[in-house]
Amino acid sequence: MGLREATAELHRKAEKMEFNQRMFRGELSKKEYLHYLIQQASIFQCIEEHKSADIGPDLVRLTRVFQDIVELSREVPDSFPSIQATTEYGIYLEGLKTKDLYPHIYLNYMALMYGGQMMKSKVPGSGKMYEFDNVNESIAMIRAIQKDEWADEVNKGFKYIINILDELQRHSK
User: Fold this and answer.
1) Averaged in consecutive runs of 10 residues, what is the pLDDT profile of the chain (173 residues)?
2) Which of 27, 34, 53, 164 has the fewest CB atoms within 10 Å, i.e. the most exposed one?
3) CA distance 144 to 119
4) CATH of 3-172 among 3.30.450.20, 3.30.565.10, 1.20.910.10, 3.40.640.10
């Protein structure tokens, strides 16, 4: 079974999470989206501090996520800190060896290059996080190292993402 098929169930579950659906429909407030961006910054920081140079500079998201955070922080004076589910994912990522981060690079960066492109026009702010200088080259770089054996690790990542989305939704109420 290929990677896409082996991760399809949890991928669909993540897409159907209420917070994700609200983001896709353009229903998140600036404060809710800022809270989401703070979680994204935490995840990308964990990955980008440990990734190897052969991934490519265009994948680096942390600077662009911070640009979005700064933009929205001007309008939203108070935001939420990192949430427990994000902290747990970060601890997990920090414990991985560089090569073991590749499935999480696949999960988190491909999400921005595919679904994120649809999301960009529906979120508050300019959506710099979703901008890639050369999206096709970036996708090709990930595809070049992609392995079907990553399925278990990608599914672990999806479980963390699902928990993050669930906690974000609970904070939104």
Assistant:
1) 96 97 96 95 92 72 95 84 91 93 96 92 96 92 94 98 97 85
2) 53
3) 25
4) 1.20.910.10
d(CA 123, CA 28): 7
The 10 Å CB-count burial string (b at 16+, else e) for 87-109 is: eebbeebeebeeeebbbbbbbbb
Token pair recorded at residue 14 = 């993540």
Q: Is 68 exposed, middle or buried (0-12, 13-18, 19+ CB in 10 A)?
A: buried
- What is the residue type of 101? L
CA distance 114 to 44: 17
pLDDT at res. 54: 59
